[in-house]
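Forwarding the complex inputs:
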Amino acid sequence: MKLLYFAWVRERVGKADEDIALPAEIRTVGELMDWLAGRGEEYAYAFENRKVIRAAIDRAHVKPETPIANAREIAFFPPMTGG
Amino acid sequence: MKLLYFAWVRERVGKADEDIALPAEIRTVGELMDWLAGRGEEYAYAFENRKVIRAAIDRAHVKPETPIANAREIAFFPPMTGG
Amino acid sequence: MTVTIRLQREDFDAGPEIARLVGARTDIGAIVTFSGICRDHEAGHSVTAMTLEHYPGMAEEEIARHVEEAQKRWPLQGVTVIHRYGRMVPGDNIVLVVTASAHRDAAFAAAEFLMDYLKTRAPFWKREEHGGATSWVDAKETDDDAARRWTAAT
Amino acid sequence: MTVTIRLQREDFDAGPEIARLVGARTDIGAIVTFSGICRDHEAGHSVTAMTLEHYPGMAEEEIARHVEEAQKRWPLQGVTVIHRYGRMVPGDNIVLVVTASAHRDAAFAAAEFLMDYLKTRAPFWKREEHGGATSWVDAKETDDDAARRWTAAT
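Prediction (whole assembly, four chains):
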């Protein structure tokens, strides 16, 4: 599965994207954030305040309780500031 | 005093403007419309439905009860349809 | 505050008018532009041309009064209003309103306010041509309602 | 319905975009254009430059979804959305939204709707430069409130 990071999530994680094999027990976006936060200092820092982090599955906004199911691409990023 | 007519008021009166000496007893815009309506067929036609006719004194919108006082220029016209 | 008000027979072009309003300023965050265009239909019937009559002198003054009122209500950095008169065919520009502000809500509100007032208070009258006949366009109640919303709350 | 959505590093010009949207059509009565410009100040501090990061692919799709939503809500004849990314300095264009309709209320509402959603839902992030430092711009609650007004009533 491909993970993408944007803005300060990307800066904290230290990379823009990565391919990752997820443990089978991770079923939701929120569970994925919990798991990522335990992967090391930079991830713990990036995901320290999970409430403000937004996620998208296959380029559509999702909530933490959304199941990952057959996602090909999951992105994490701060609240948007476009326009 | 100068009177101006626009749009279908102008077409009905048959002229765009005229200089007129008003009788002293005409004190308001509404009284002026009543007086004008009595000046002949074309005026009667132009002012037959006085409720829809708008007026301006010296280039500012006024109501029928507005005193004419020292007006230099009074205009009569239908509701505006600009923009 | 940069204010430009022009009544003209000639066409206009929104792009250069926006550029002129911004100029070298770097404090503007939002520009809202309204372009009113002559349509080929009106309330169900077709329109082949339209002639706009105006009250010279009063039209400029009335627009200027509403631009001043908009400045009082919203933090604006610039306003441009151009209104054409004379004969126009479908597709031709009729009116342009450009508002500039640091914030988009002010720019949007001021542009809507100015358009609602141009429709109902600026001394312009439209005569339509359709199928060989001409007729004066009736004022719309929906336009009066739109203009009234700016006074209802104050 | 003519829909144009472009993400680009290059500048844009509102005038030609409006002209392209109208084309040879004669049924359009109202065009509303919003231009978002990089400001030299933000919440009290000065800004010397700004870099816009975006999520390629999702940005286009997310904008397209909101354009479709706008089409469902209002009788639109055309929509153009252009959003830049990369580094910009004060005075530079950031975003352009153009909406076309037979009626001005639809064109105004759709442009405001699209801007509110671009601000809060389109995957773009601004990083400001000010006084030698850089920082990510925080999302504004006022922008969230503005976006929410389109769902509150339905």
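Helices of chain D lie at 14-22, 58-73, 104-120, 141-152.
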